[in-house]
Amino acid sequence: MYISNEGLLVILFVGLVAGWLAGKIVRGAGFGIIGDIVIGIAGALVASLLFPKLGIRLGTGLVSEIIYSAIGAIILLLVVRLVRGGGRL
Predict the structure, then answer these.
(1) Quick one: which of 42, 47, 44 has its CA closest to 57?
(2) Which among 79, 77, 65, 76 is positioned nearest to 15, based on CA atoms?
(3) Termini Cα distance of the chain
(4) Which of 15, 23, 47, 51 could make an S-S bridge to 37, C-beta 3.0–4.6 Å?
(5) pLDDT tens column, 68-86
(6) Distance from chain centroid for Cα 68
(7) Containing H/E element for 81?
(8) pTM for this structure?
């Protein structure tokens, strides 16, 4: 699989924005800029696996990818908070 430099920049940008959004929505769960990018990219993976199985479609384009990734990152942050925080949301 080949990813161009522009594609890699888009993935990192979407991950950064989604991770930042998720960190702001789930207060106190931000992990810094690198951590937010990783959480955003992992959230995109969670959303791309979970949403099609649930039949959820938000559209196409960069904005919908950011929304998908942010929702996936929020889910991921809530799970991390449940595991690390002893069950407190």
Answers:
(1) 47
(2) 65
(3) 38
(4) 15
(5) 888 888 888 888 778 876 5
(6) 7
(7) helix 62-84
(8) 0.73
